[in-house]
Specification:
The structure is a single chain. By secondary structure, the protein is of the alpha/beta class. The protein has helices at about 1-20, 20-50, 215-220, 250-270, 295-310, 315-325, 345-355, 390-395, and strands spanning about 50-55, 60, 65-75, 80-90, 95-105, 110-120, 125-135, 145, 150-155, 155-160, 185-190, 190-200, 225-230, 235-240, 275-280, 285-295, 330-340, 355-365, 380-385. The strands form 4 sheets. Strands 2, 4, 5, 7, 8 and 10 form a 6-stranded mixed beta sheet that branches. The chain is elongated. The model has no long low-confidence stretch (mean pLDDT about 80).
Amino acid sequence: MIFIYLAMLIISVLFYILYKGVISFLVLVFVFAVPIVMLTMLLICRRKITAALRLENSRCTAGQSIPIAAELTNPTLIPVLNCEITFEITLASENSSEKIRINTPIFPRNMQRLSASFSSSHYGLVRCKMISVKIYDMLRLFRFKLPAKKLNHINCEAIILPKQIDLENTVSDYSDIGLESENYSAVKAGDDPSEIFSIRDYSDGDRMSRVHWKLTAKEDRLMVKDYSLALADSFFIAADTYIPPQFSGHSAEIYDTLAVMTTSISQLLCQNNARHIVGFFDDRSQEAEFIKVDEEGESITACVRLMMAGCCNKPSRLVNEILESGDQRRRYGHMICISAIYDAAYAEALICSGLACRYTFLICGGGADGTELAGDHANAEIVRIDPKNAAASLAALTL
């Protein structure tokens, strides 16, 4: 359009030179005044127009279309014939971005809503940002960006939840190995003498050490105590989401495998009423998160929190937090460590810490180097997971 305007300007100047008079002068003044008027109108619009961005769905599945809504508000009487809106879509698991552009007019005294959509074949946190809103005058002589304070972002993060694998593995019961807990079963007796489950009449085979002598004397019949069953966190799922640089070409696929394994194992444990903890490191808060899970709703919460945390930027942050927590009295039946690579030093430190009775290291980054246990540990094993066939590898997992 600027070339058309320059042509009009040249013609109006030649017209004024060749045909001096009021009409040629007015035409020349009009052509000269148009850019000033356009610039003034555009500056007013730049100060008054606001834009807001929101995502319609905060949770969705891979491949599902995620709608974006942009709301443009123009309180002035000046129309904007061309506005270019640029969105940036970032997938946290591979730290890559994609841009979407929309061109639209902005009508005067109006609030209009524009819609676009995108989808992701990978899991994790997706961030959407309106990086620029450019407005043009009618002749496209001038262009301005709306100030950052005029761009509002509302609910601009979406979670792409992983599709879980339906597992039917047998889950071991670690309730009788002396795991510490502050919670006790309301329906099943156990061997924890710190809490009494019930008092009943004596039966053949009951231990005399469990006789309640005061109540026996009062009731004039033998009464025995049943101890409580401690509801301990039998499993610890430690998801190390650090993806090494050598996997940068397919980091999203590895992260997908990590997410699927973590959520699928957690779901299996919930189905078998096995209390457990899901642990991971959140780079945004720079803290490790440990989520207690004893029902399916909490398993979904743990999955969402894991997706929001995204990839860790340094190796073994979670393992360091576990080893440095100082809670040496707490023990688990089975610690399941899920990571892209195997670190023999940290594996040895975990095993020697005595935090669990069994250790399983699930490695899903590919390759076969450095996957031997540093010492002779009968209670630990390394399982290499094929990212393309994780279901078969998990189906053979011993819990």
